[in-house]
Amino acid sequence: MQLGGQGSGEARVPQLAPGCDPARLPLSPAEGYLLSRIDGRTPWSLLRQIGGLPAGEVDRCLERWVSEGVLVVDGSASKPNPRPSKEEEGSAAERPAAEAAPGAAQASSGSLPTDESLEIPVEAQERILEFEKRLKRPYHEILGVPVNADMKAVKRAYFELSKEYHPDRYFRRKIGPFAPLLARIFKRVVEAYELLSDPATRAEVQRNAVEPPSPAAAAANEKAPAERKKKLPPLHLHAPQLRALAERKAKAKGFFETGMAAFKQGRWREAAASVRLAIAFDPWNEAVKEAFGEVQYKANEERAEQLLKEANANLDLRRVAEALPLFEEALHYRPQDPEVNHTTARLAWLAADDLKKAKEYATRACELRPEVSSYRRTLGQIYKAAGLIANARRELEAALRIDPKDAEAKQELRSLPKK
Fold it and tell me: Is a pLDDT exceeding 90 seen at residue 169?
């Protein structure tokens, strides 16, 4: 049954069978990623490009899932939806949450209950579930900024959301089904931030929030019963405009294919640049925009690693002034890294005498890892340098409660003025 090969099958759109729960399927991480791309809108041909597997392997997976009743194509499936065996249920329950299909969180998060046994506060669980409901809204609503917000406001909103929803905030903690949910949220936040930060893509995305319908779609809409009619924008496109639109979509497809080829070879930043261009030419394609979130996330990690390597090399050569801006830029891509925040705080304090920035970075390090005594000590020292003695005493005493043998914290505490 070659549904995905050359010919008419490539235009067909698979979707999950009614009642199918992806979380109960025994999937490898690669299969989970492919299944998460299936949204009932993305055609088979595009899945072969963005599925993260060789095209032939994508075909085999999709054909197997159709035959097993996991997927339906054009509303029909070969078999009823299967029930997993007890062994399969056990293996699915034992898999780490990070290996579950990202699409599973999307399918089940609407009814996902809070769980007091998880190592994430119930209040934070509720905020995550509420935020997940906003992910299909316009980008400025996702970030919580006005539609005309300037770049500083967009960046500030991104930083705040990163601190709250970055998956690494709960690194090595038991957070169960919230792990794939956080990953999905953060990739969407990255997507929103990157596309609103680039003036070209921002203008295109906001100007073309609604895709013009094709003549065929508009005609079909007119013939539909009144209760089933969709509110399509008025069709005022003439032949030259339709040709121009088709050319834009063709260019977008070329950029997207180039980006996916680079992505498969691990050239993350090159892939992100190509997919960004694809969005600029075709801002209506939701599948491309969703892929961009995944690609840009990888590109950001790569850029952060490069910046940290350069920053530490400058520190080794005692070029502190050159190292500080590199650490700060790395935090733009990795705001949740407690050690980078701590190092940047000390450099801002000792090298740049910028106590305001130093306090901001040190506070963030303490929020991320409150159990690390050296982070508390540094924050106390910064408060002392700023003349905030009560705050300095509080943080230094906290450092000593964590590590009573911290000699530097003891010395700093003794040097404070008496109460």
Answer: no
